[in-house]
Amino acid sequence: MQKKIYVTGMDDDDVAAKVTAAVKAIAGVTSVEATPAKCQVFVDCDDAAEAAVTAAIEGAGVTVLA
């Protein structure tokens, strides 16, 4: 499943790199791209990984918008 996640607090490339690393570490994630300029994270993952993706993003200090 491909998902576009809108976030706040991802202000630069360093934070985007932390988000990318955190999400890539999740089983079931096949790709991730964090774009600070657009405050978006694109994730391709299986359905079972969806909740873990949100938790990983927030664990990196970024807020996921509903």
Strand arrangement in the largest pleated sheet:
2-3-1-4
Largest sheet: 4 strands, antiparallel
What letter string, H or E per element, gives the SSE order? EHEEHE
Overall pLDDT score: 96
Looking at how many chains there are and whether they match, the oligomeric state comes to: single chain
Unreliable stretches (pLDDT < 50, length at least 5) are none
| Terminal CA distance | 18 Å
Structural class: alpha+beta
Q: How would you sum up the global shape?
A: globular
Given the structure, what is the number of helices? 2
Describe this structure in words.
- By secondary structure, this protein is α+β, with helices and mostly antiparallel strands.
- It has two helices and four strands.
- It has helices spanning 13-24, 50-59; strands at 2-8, 29-35, 40-45, 63-64.
- It has a four-stranded antiparallel β-sheet.
- Helix 1 (13-24) runs antiparallel to helix 2.
- The radius of gyration is 10 Å and the shape is globular.
- The two termini are 18 Å apart.
Descriptive key words:
alpha+beta; about 35% helix; single chain; four-stranded antiparallel β-sheet; 2 helices; about 70 residues; 4 strands; globular
Short description:
This protein has 66 residues and is α+β, with helices and mostly antiparallel strands.
